[in-house]
Amino acid sequence: xxxxxxxxxxxxxxxxxxxxxxxxxxxxxxxxxxxxxxxxxxxxxxxxxxxxxxxxxxxxxxxxxxxxxxxxxxxxxxxxxxxxxxxxxxxxxxxxxxxxxxxxxxxxxxxxxxxxxxxxxxxxxxxxxxxxxxxxxxxxxxxxxxxxxxxxxxxxxxxxxxxxxxxxxxxxxxxxxxxxxxxxxxxxxxxxxxxxxxxxxxxxxxxxxxxxxxxxxxxxxxxxxxxxxxxxxxxxxxxxxx
Length: 242
Hints:
By secondary structure, the protein is mostly helical.
């Protein structure tokens, strides 16, 4: 096969809708395999499949000089499936509904307060460090799940893709470090752990919580949904006074 033919074939492959989808799935599968093969808890935390997939995808795009827009043509299918996947988290939550009735009031008080603190700290920290107002507005909805963060950032004058990157980065960091931090703080209650991880790490943290324990995963899913709702309501209100 001639060099020109090889180049043409590679151009076709990387512009194909299947390329981004397959690359993402392969990266995630590599992460799953790595996590299953390591034994130490800290290595299992570091080899989160989502984190490994991000590294694999980023490395391939960088090494082969592939435009992100070409990759996103296929990867957008996974983005679309985020919605149904989020709705599916209602199943483990329904199975733990007997726990929720006793904790309804504490949850409905704690999560909006936590959301308000997250929004306020994000805005004030960026302004204190001299960042632009556009950056501050992109940072405000960082604790919401990614689709909500994108929509909110664009509505209030932020940058949607930047808000998505911040949400995913925080989600991965929380999924990796969150359980260990909670253990160091001697927080053993599965319900409290789930609420904390879901509020900070949304979908990525909820997936980690589900893998650790069904009760923890159910409360993480609840926390993710309620936090997204609280942030959607509180961001416009807090911007009026901050």
